[in-house]
Amino acid sequence: MPKIGVIISTTRDTRFGDKVAEWFMSLANERSDLQFELVDLRDYPLPFFNEKSSNLYMPTENAEGQRWQKKVGEFDGYVIVTAEYNHAPSAVLKNALDYAYVEWVRKPVAFVGYGAVGAARAVEQLRQIAVELQMAPIRSAVHIQGGDFMQVYMGEKKLEDLTYLPPLVTSMLDDLVWWANALKTARESQSSAK
Ligand SMILES: Cc1cc2nc3c(=O)[nH]c(=O)nc-3n(C[C@H](O)[C@H](O)[C@H](O)COP(=O)(O)O)c2cc1C
């Protein structure tokens, strides 16, 4: 079964991202065709990237960077839970994406965004970054936005109250499982052919 890393991509002390990730995990764990693991960037305190090169060209020297690469490499695909900071992904997430390369290649990535416009602008940027990392960004996404986001953020509503969201999670994961299986098979057939 494909193993999917669900990445919490903000780390500030008062972040909201972990609440979204936990809600997502409760739905994702109902599936029998994918296996999920929560990966919190707080648990990987990477320094700002200061390597001689991306690990596409040269091994990473920083020990925390190596530990992060090892974790990224365990998965067949990813769901990035993302906020939008000034219409972009968080700097912490971009740094973490830069801190690996070979581990991301030929794997699918899907997005759960939250914010005024459901982090749509950050997700579009992440899709571009994913292509450069030779990933397959999934079309379907989950965007928690507008008044609903604000009400949940202010504690006036729960994510569970937004009953239109679970079908969106299902569509996104249906897409993700197709790509995860297809690319896993392709990666494995390529390595056995060597
Ligand atoms: C530096 C900064 C920039 C932000 N820029 C945006 C933005 O461009 N669009 C948006 O919808 N929300 C923006 N917000 C509000 C975030 O959507 C909100 O704070 C959200 O909870 C951030 O995710 P986090 O709590 O997981 O850090 C910004 C917040 C911060 C801290």
The CATH first-level class comes to Alpha Beta
CATH H-level superfamily: Flavodoxin domain
Q: Low-confidence stretches at least 5 residues in length (pLDDT < 50)?
A: none
Which CATH architecture would you pick? Answer: 3-Layer(aba) Sandwich
% residues in beta strands: 15-25%
Number of helices: 6
User: For this entry, what is the oligomeric state of its chains?
Assistant: single chain
Shape from CA axes? globular
CATH topology: Rossmann fold
Bound molecules: flavin mononucleotide
Task: Name the structural class.
Answer: alpha/beta
Radius of gyration from the alpha-carbon trace, in angstroms: 16 Å
Number of domains: 1
N- to C-terminal distance: 23 Å
Write the H/E string, N to C.
Answer: EHEHEHEHEEHH
Average pLDDT rating: 97
Structure commentary:
Strand 4, helix 4 and strand 5 form a beta-alpha-beta unit. The protein has 6 helices and 6 strands; from the N terminus they run βαβαβαβαββαα. The mean pLDDT is 97. It starts with a strand and ends with a helix. The protein has helices spanning 17-28, 63-73, 91-98, 120-132, 146-153, 165-193, and strands spanning 3-8, 35-40, 77-82, 108-114, 136-137, 142-144. It has a single domain, classed as 3-Layer(aba) Sandwich (Rossmann fold). It is an alpha/beta fold. Strands 1, 2, 3, 4, 5 and 6 form a 6-stranded parallel beta sheet that branches. The relative contact order is 0.16. Flavin mononucleotide (FMN) is lined by residues 10, 12, 15-17, 83-87, 115-117.
